[in-house]
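Good day; I would like, with your permission, to put a structural problem before you. What I wish to show you is a protein chain and, alongside it, a tokenised description of its three-dimensional fold. Here, with my thanks, is the record as I have it:
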Amino acid sequence: MTYLPLSVILGLLFTGAAITLTILFRSVKAGHFSNLQSGAYVIFDEDEPVGTPQDQFFREAPSDADSTSDNNTKTSP
């Protein structure tokens, strides 16, 4: 039984992990993760302020009075 396929897979795994960790630590050292909150507010301006919903995707739920009146008006065959 040969361990060549296993050693190739483990070599690729360790190489990929080393490259990933190197990129991560260099980006932390360069300051890319120092202020993550500032990028979150770039999309807002005076027309669309922070915390004010602009798009309404869902209708408001009907009140209980509306749903009971709908049930009473239906007739059965």
Remarks:
- The chain has a mean pLDDT of 80.
- Residues 4-30 form the longest helix (27 residues).
